Task: structure prediction
Amino acid sequence: DDCSLKPVSSGYWDIRWPSATGRTYKVYSTTDLARWTNVVYQAPGTGLEMAYTNRAAEAGQNFMRVTVKRN
Result:
């Protein structure tokens, strides 16, 4: 399934993804694709859409990713 990344207000972005029970999700953010920061440590899946709002970097680009682990 796909994630979506959309601006929600000035400087803030929402990343959304479908979740499943029995799965744990982590969200990471980076500005350079080399050093990733874990911004959501371990969110248990609910079976519903999940979301995280992130403040974008002051200048340049910002990337986000979601990883999933089966419990």
The chain has a mean pLDDT of 90. Residues 26 and 40 are 5 Å apart (CA to CA).
